[in-house]
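Chain and backbone:
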Amino acid sequence: MLLSIPDVLTAEQVVHCRHRLQQAGWADGRITAGHQSARVKDNLQLPEDSEVARELGAVVHDAAQASSTFFSAALPRRIYPPLFNCYRDGQSFGFHVDNAVRYDRSGGDPARPVRTDLSATLFLSDPGDYDGGELVIEDTYGVQQVKLPAGHLVLYPGTSLHRVNPVTRGARLASFFWIQSMVREDSQRRLMFELDVSIRRLTRDVPDHPSLVQLTGIYHNLLRHWADV
């Protein structure tokens, strides 16, 4: 499932993040790439243990957790500390698949790996600020190109083949991170999300509908059956 989630960060939070990133010390983005990814990766990235990365990572983490849509779609068990990257001057990232397991190198608990069931990109630059830089994702419905307003997030399966097109003007700032879900299978997460959305709509439109209790019970019984906790 590929899902765009609007306004994960407020406009004020976006401005704060941009201001802090302008003062940050960027490094070669290949510091977090695997062997194959490093051959096609050309961008800048904040070191995971930098003060700015930790500060803004907490902002992004808390904002994502506060989003009911993010929680419903991801059903997060663990979230890898958010990272930050920058593409400019023709930089790009060729087609690759993210590592299946990530280990926290930011000073957290490295003994607790995160299985990357889901990948997330939170855009910090508006589309008009740069040319190119589309996140291109291959999924079961074909090739999707994603370029969202600042503060918006895209969530997609970690198994997806994806790339970032070259940025030919301006700079593309973003946060990216991975999620280990309580529900490992993407098809099951999709069903849980669609059921939850339907329950919320029914609650809004027909709050006294007698099926609400039954549907909510079905949701939790499916989660009980599929959850890995």
Q: What stands out?
A: The chain is about 35% helix and 30% strand. The mean pLDDT is 94.
